[in-house]
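BUG: 3D viewer hangs when loading the predicted structure for this chain

Environment: internal workstation, default settings.
Expected: structure renders.
Actual: progress bar stalls at 90%.

Input used:
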Amino acid sequence: MPKVLIIDDEAGMCRMLVQHFSSRGWDADEAGTSAQGILLASAAEPDIVLLDVKLPDQDGIETLRNLKARNNPASIVMMTAYGVIADAVEAIKLGAEQYLIKPFKLAELDALVDRIVETRKLRIENLYYRRMLDHPIVGVSMEIQRLHHMIDLMAENADTTVLLLGESGTGKELAAREIHRRGPRRDRPFMDINCSVLSDTLLESEMFGHERGAFTDAREQKRGLLEVADGGTVFLDEIGEMPMAVQAKLLRVLETRTFKRLGGTRDLHVNVRIIAATNRDLEKAVEQGRYREDLYYRLKVFPLVLPPLRERRDDIPVLTDYFIQHFNNTLKKNVTGFAPECGGALQAYAWPGNVRELRNVVERAMVLTKSTVMGLDLLPREIIGDFTVTGRSMESADRVCFDKKPLREIEREYILKVFRDEGSNRSSTARALGISRSTLQEKLKSYGIK
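Structure tokens produced before the viewer hung:
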């Protein structure tokens, strides 16, 4: 829950505000002097500080300077009964979020602090994704290089609607976030919603917001994702599952950039980019009368198909290494990789769940392994079964795994066997083993093969 600190020498004002915020479910603290307020701001780490300009020991402007000098992350709202414009300008220059003139209405205060809390959440979310998703789309295949090129084109055209198509697990949300991150809207919000998990009314409320009393549980006004994301991007996942009633309202947004909140009468204007995604055949849904034809063509301005993993097998070793490094960090392990015989199994499997399934397979194996090298026994049965069907001898793989030889010797024998089977072709050998060509080259060089 949000935290607020009130710094004001008027005891009655402090009590009233503490009671008000407590009734809203907030954590509320109060301080009657600047010194007490600065100490509490450090100890309680509030989201918002309501700071009076006139205090007995030090005025609010100096208190604001002190808080900013200590790098306190709270959003600060100045309060005064005097309304001196010079003070207001100085406070904003020093980093205050807003300036309130006493007496103010509680509704006005609520609207302000709610907007501040929402903005803080979005800043944290955007910072997280900028740090964590610098290069989220991993791969070296031609398919992935083409995808990066298309993402760059879409990022440059920041107002164009994009429709991402592809099987489940191919990375449609990552692509949407990357389009946003590379474009001029990167410093504005990225909001996402899954259209398949909410009822019609809740989905409409989440997207467009609602007025107080619009439906049974609408106890107060709520801004929708479109409104909150103004200037940024809204990602609509599973757009093929969107109910017909909501489709009509979305069509209006795409055509006019306007909408009404649920239960509202006033048109709201927004500047947002819409990126939609689906694994359904929308054209077929239109033919069957389950999807609006006009909305389909509005969404299909810039369609982009994300390739399934089975069509970019060159990326499997790279993705595997990427996930191993990721889970080494999160699980505090030091796994170097899969044993060479696992590479063929990983390459042969069809990956119906695509990159998401590969990630899960790597995570499961790393949770279970007690060694730095993961063997065939840690792969799911369906993957090993596919490996057997492709014709690569499981019997020889088992023999290599369980002969009582040093691990280095087992690895050498297996790599050389696959190398011979592949006609001494380094590229196909690397693909069969599930390792990069450079890694294979290093190993062959250590075996005396140039």
